[in-house]
C-alpha cells in the first residue's frame, strides 16, 4: 500500500485528489494539509511514502516545504503540483529534491501512474520537459567561470553518460548513441547518482547544467 499525503491550500482540490486516489486498491491517503508548515507538522506523526505538494501556498510554499522534507533521512518522496506549465518554481523544486513535477490538471491515470513511479524510486519528469525547463531558467544559472567541476569524481564514460542524460535522451537512446547495452547505461547512471549524492535523474540534469558539463547552447564544456 502506497501511503500518500495531499498538501494544497484549496480544500476542494484536496477532496478531489482524495477521491481519485482513494479509489485505487494500492493507494491510501493518510493525511492532508493546507500549507507547507502544516504538512511538516503532520509528517511528524504521520508516515507517508509520497507527498503531493502544491507550489503556491500561504505561510510556507511547496518548494521550501519540499526542501525541508527531502533533507530528512528516510523522508517521503515529494511530487510537486502546479497550475502553470514549466512553472518558475520548478527548477528550485528539483534542486530541493522533489521526485516529480506535474500540472494540477493532469488526468487521473497519469497522476496515479506518477505516484506509483515515484514510490518505486523513479523521477516522473520527462527528459524533454526537464530540458525545456532548464533552457528556460538557464539565464539564472551561474556564469561559466563560477561553475564547480567535479572532473575527478566521475570517469570519462560517466561524464559522457551524464552529458547525454542532461540533453534529454532516454537510457535506450544513450545506449544507441554510445554503443552500449541499456543495462550498462543504467549501471553508469546509478554510479553517477551515488558519487554525486543525487536523488534521481532530474537532479542529475540540474547538476550537469550547474557544473558546466552542459551549457544552455548544449555545447560540451
UniProtKB/TrEMBL annotation:
It holds the Pfam family GerE. The keyword DNA-binding applies. Coiled coil: none annotated. Keywords: DNA-binding, Phosphoprotein, Transcription, Transcription regulation. Residues 3-119 form the Response regulatory domain. The modification 4-aspartylphosphate is found at residue 54. One of its GO terms (biological process) is phosphorelay signal transduction system. This is DNA-binding response regulator. It comes from Planotetraspora mira.
Amino acid at each position: 500500500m502506497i501511503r500518500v499525503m495531499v498538501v494544497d491550500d484549496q480544500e476542494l482540490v484536496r477532496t478531489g485528489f482524495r477521491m481519485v486516489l482513494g479509489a485505487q486498491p494500492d493507494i491510501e491517503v493518510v493525511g492532508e494539509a493546507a500549507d507547507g508548515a502544516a504538512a511538516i507538522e503532520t509528517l511528524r506523526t504521520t508516515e507517508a511514502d509520497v507527498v503531493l505538494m502544491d507550489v503556491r501556498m500561504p505561510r510556507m510554499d511547496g518548494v521550501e516545504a519540499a526542501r525541508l522534507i527531502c533533507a530528512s533521512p528516510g523522508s517521503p518522496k515529494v511530487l510537486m503540483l502546479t497550475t502553470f506549465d514549466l512553472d518558475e518554481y520548478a527548477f528550485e523544486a528539483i534542486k530541493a529534491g522533489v521526485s516529480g513535477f506535474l500540472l494540477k490538471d493532469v488526468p487521473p491515470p497519469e497522476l496515479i501512474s506518477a505516484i506509483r513511479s515515484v514510490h518505486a524510486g523513479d523521477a516522473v519528469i520527462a527528459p524533454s520537459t526537464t530540458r525545456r525547463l532548464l533552457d528556460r531558467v538557464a539565464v539564472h544559472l551561474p556564469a561559466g567561470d563560477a561553475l564547480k567541476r567535479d572532473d575527478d569524481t566521475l570517469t570519462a564514460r560517466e561524464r559522457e553518460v551524464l552529458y547525454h542524460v542532461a540533453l534529454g535522451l532516454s537510457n535506450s537512446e544513450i545506449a544507441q548513441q554510445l554503443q552500449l547495452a541499456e543495462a550498462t547505461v543504467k549501471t553508469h547512471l546509478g554510479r553517477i547518482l551515488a558519487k554525486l549524492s543525487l536523488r534521481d535523474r532530474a537532479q542529475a540534469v540540474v547538476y550537469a547544467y550547474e557544473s558546466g558539463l552542459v551549457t544552455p547552447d548544449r555545447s560540451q564544456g
